[in-house]
Amino acid sequence: MACSIPGYAQPRHSFALGDSVFLLDNRPFQMICGEMHYARIPREAWRQRMKMAKAMGLNTIGTYVFWNIQEPEKGKFDFSGNNDIAAFVRTAQEESLWVVLRPSPYVCAEWEFGGYPYWLQNENGLVVRSKEQKYLNEYKQYLMALGKQLAPLQVNHGGNILMIQVENEYGSYGDNREYLEINRKIFQKAGFDGLLFTADQANDVARGFLPGSLPALNGIDNPQRIRQLVRRYNNGKGPYYVAEWYPAWFDWWGSPHHVVPPEKYTAQLDSMLSAGISVNMYMFHGGTTRGFMNGANYNDKSPYEPQISSYDYDAPLDEAGNATPKFMAFRSVIQKHLPPGQTLPDVPAAKPAISIDDIQFRETTGIFNILSSPKINQRLLTFEDLHQAYGFVLYRTKLNGGAKGKLAVMGLRDYALVFINGRRAGILDRRLGDSSINVEMPQGSVTLDILVENLGRINFGPYLLNNKKGITQKVLFNNQELENWQMFSLPLDDINAIKRSAAAKKYTEAPVLRRGNFNLVKTGDSYLDMSRWGKGVVWVNGYNLGRYWNVGPQQTIYVPGEWLKPGNNEIVVLELIKPQQAILRGIEKPSLSN
């Protein structure tokens, strides 16, 4: 396929559905696709990851588009830097890769709120994934903005986008065909006039398919069953596309790291390719869910399960973009199915990795010393009430002391440190069902502080509409509701803007921001060893690298070499529960298991 050359028109291609195969320029075409997400990979590394995809034998890349990074606040769109999805698609074209685009407003993807922007919850009466008009209005505005970026990059306009997904596993959520048809019309109005498809788990296709659009399948690898299902919901015809084939799985805090040996999946991949079925590996390369963008799972049978920052996924390409044994095994399978005379590119060498000598932190700022002006209200306000998407909120009130009893935080979302006159009294963790602690209030006026962390909004299941953060109900002390609150927003969205001041001695158990520097002669990927630390967030050179937590399984934080520089580099660590910790180092290999 032609590369994208600025200033020159690209040849238009045709892409169509045959009775059993895809047709690219009227010739049979089997997609061997791998999922990787632009937002989980440093922009500077997109091309390297795509070269690795080519080396494994992929001809197509699949990616979600995340509404909440493209429109982080209502009406304010951001397609710059790492959010430049059009640049990601064009880079794939330059690397001779096709793209399957998945811009359904709901993506799941172990991503905060399943990709929905937090501010939708501030629209009174709005119901996501429904025909409710406020939702449809916001959805249309977003899709129209996205269409301006991406519609010109469809294959029928000279681009490399082969297909566009109009909803994502809708059958696991609802069964309203009229809603799906509205989706399709919105996509078409936004300029997506190429092939549209839906994707559902095998048991949900009946509820999630849309007549006239290809019904793709997720989580299935039996060729006979794939053909049966697609034909049943596609007028007796193909082609056959598995939109999510899982060669591994993701992790959440407090669970074991998931590892699945490649030999468990090579036969399945071989059988699907032999049967002419097109496949998208979810994930080919997971990358990292940086910042505060991880999602969480929750249902009536399982506890709240926020996902870790590493999205390594035990994928063929590891978190740093290097080939794994799974990569080599799948490459061998794909090589068997190449046309006669075609060979795969050599596998690029592993990226350089470096260790970083002990980083000494010479500056410490207590979190109580960086508070801005509070919002004052009789009752508690959520993150959404405060127009805050992510990060932390400090709730403060004063009460008369001289009593002991139970302090109950009702509707905690999701993790709280409780302080009485600056001393830590306890920790509450939604994962564990914690909602109360026994405390003793000293004599006199008492300051009660509750620092709450948003650990990630639910991204899948029936509770998408029950996703507000902070303290969502009330706080009781000995069954009496506490009122008259100050609420301090701590979004920590620009670490360089945080004012610096010394840690106040009376807050010796309070969270701290530790700043340090390290010098490098050469750059490369590294992994910060957080195994002696407690819980928090790390920034390097202004980039939020994600969360760490001693409950595991993740024990390191990946530092992309692309974001390091020779000479001086700055690091900032927010440590919540071990403020005395002050030594850190970078190692050459990750530790994703306890």
What does this structure look like?
The longest helix is centred in the first third of the chain and has 18 residues, at 133-150. An eight-stranded parallel barrel has the order 4-5-6-7-8-9-10-11, surrounded by four helices. Strands 29-28-31-26-14-32-27-30 form an eight-stranded antiparallel beta sheet, with no helix packed on it. β18 and β19 (423-429) form a beta hairpin. The protein contains nine helices and 32 strands. By secondary structure, the chain is α/β, with parallel strands linked by helices. It is globular. Mean pLDDT is 95; it is low at 1-8. The two termini are 45 Å apart.
At a glance:
With 594 residues, the chain is of the alpha/beta class. It contains nine helices and 32 strands.
Q: What does the secondary structure layout of this molecule look like, with pairings?
A:
Elements: E1 15-17, E2 22-24, E3 27-29, E4 32-35, H1 46-56, E5 60-64, H2 67-70, H3 85-94, E6 98-102, H4 133-150, E7 161-168, H5 177-189, E8 195-201, H6 205-208, E9 214-218, H7 223-232, E10 241-245, H8 266-274, E11 278-281, E12 296-297, E13 305-306, H9 325-336, E14 356-366, E15 375-377, E16 392-400, E17 404-413, E18 415-420, E19 423-429, E20 436-440, E21 445-453, E22 458-460, E23 470-477, E24 480-481, E25 485-490, E26 512-520, E27 526-529, E28 535-540, E29 543-549, E30 556-559, E31 567-575, E32 583-587
Parallel strand pairs: 4-5, 4-11, 5-6, 6-7, 7-8, 8-9, 9-10, 10-11, 12-22
Antiparallel strand pairs: 1-2, 2-3, 12-13, 14-26, 14-32, 15-25, 16-21, 16-25, 17-20, 17-23, 18-19, 18-21, 23-24, 26-31, 27-30, 27-32, 28-29, 28-31
